[in-house]
Design a protein that fits this description.
This protein is mainly alpha-helical. It contains 13 helices and 5 strands. The two termini are 27 Å apart. The structure holds tryptophan. Tryptophan binds next to β1, α7 and β4.
């Protein structure tokens, strides 16, 4: 699949987590769907990254399938893009080992996500959690990906990927690895809780009413929007008027993310109207976009054999790209083959 008329090769990874919600959809999934026509696309459910913190095996298997189903239901075309789970393609771990011998302790010590995830009890964090960004570099460079869609929280890891590529190239006096470019998401949609406009929408928030799950049906979606926290004012006609109104800003932001319209255009239309008018419009939009996805997701999850089959096919296609690249790396490093 060396599509010469595409802009380059994208690689992106998503953690296998349960309870996928609107924040995951607007923050990542929707962008991936848009990229697959422009770029040769490789999308990976990163189960190897998942086990850097303890996982229940049955839950991990379930989440991996759920994430795959959500991507397919959202419009990832598995005939075109490659969709697979990381542990089925051994190049990721093999290349990660080689990169462990390129990356320096000093570089990893600067990774802010490790510090956050390890917390106070650093001595007890797994070696895998520490090496997490090295595996991520291997994910990307195993395919010589040129572009990587990432959110803000992953920018530092992508920087490290570039450092590892540069160091490898210079250690072995080659220009083997390209330096991948971050593909920053255009709609920097930060979807907040429907109960509290200052907290991110989260799979683990106690109240299910705080989020729209990708498995919610149309009635439940509409109900959650109608009950969402808002305020008593009418909507402003310009963005500045939202600055001290986190709940209003969140609902307008969700409308923008779902419709593809700018915040300005939405406020032009709804400025001067209250939530009594805006919420039904938002509920209609949200059910129109999300309900078909959740219906398809539930259908797909009814046939696990078919999901597994798609993941295995994707893994075989991914392996066909990564294997020859890894072979060249082994040659460069000096392994007898
Ligand atoms: N670390 C990423 C996240 O938590 C997931 C990920 C793993 C990834 N490998 C990747 C993202 C490679 C982009 C490219 O969101």
């Amino acid at each position: 699949m060396s599509d010469t008329n595409k802009k380059g090769r994208i690689f992106s990874g998503v953690q296998p987590t349960g309870n996928l919600h609107l924040g995951n959809y607007l923050g990542a999934i929707k962008n991936w769907v848009a990229y697959q026509n422009e770029f040769e696309s490789i999308f990976c459910v990163v189960d190897l990254h998942a086990i850097t913190v303890p996982q229940d095996p049955a839950a991990l298997r379930q989440s991996t399938r759920e994430v795959a189903a959500s991507l397919i239901a959202s419009g990832i075309d598995v005939e075109q893009a490659i969709l697979f789970n990381q542990s089925q393609v051994s190049s990721h771990t093999e290349l990660a080992w080689i990169f462990n011998c390129v990356a320096r302790l000093g570089w990893l010590n600067r990774m802010t996500q490790f510090k956050e995830k390890a917390g106070k009890n650093r001595e007890n964090a797994t070696v895998g959690l520490y090496g997490y960004p090295v595996l991520m570099a291997a994910d990307i460079l195993a395919y010589k990906a040129t572009h990587v869609p990432v959110g803000d929280d992953q920018k530092q890891h992508l920087e490290l990927t570039r450092d590892i590529a540069t160091a490898f190239n210079s250690m072995f006096e080659t220009d083997f690895f390209p330096l991948p470019e971050p593909q920053i998401q255009e709609t920097a949609a930060r979807v907040m809780s429907l109960r509290d406009g200052s907290a991110k929408m989260s799979k683990s928030a106690e109240s299910d009413m705080s989020r729209i799950n990708l498995t919610d049906d149309a009635d439940l979606i509409a109900q959650k929007i109608k009950k969402a926290k808002s305020d008593a004012d009418v909507l402003p006609s310009e963005s500045a008027g939202l600055s001290e109104r986190p709940e209003a800003r969140n609902l307008v932001g969700i409308y923008a993310g779902l419709s593809g319209q700018s915040e300005a255009a939405i406020l032009q239309e709804f400025g001067g109207q209250g939530f009594g008018a805006f919420k039904p419009a938002l509920a209609e939009l949200a059910t129109a976009v999300i309900a078909p996805i959740s219906e398809e997701m539930r259908r797909l999850l009814g046939d696990i054999g078919e999901i597994d089959n798609q993941l295995a096919k994707g893994a075989a296609r991914a392996d066909a790209i990564a294997r020859p690249i890894l072979d060249e790396v082994k040659e460069i490093v000096g392994f007898v083959r």
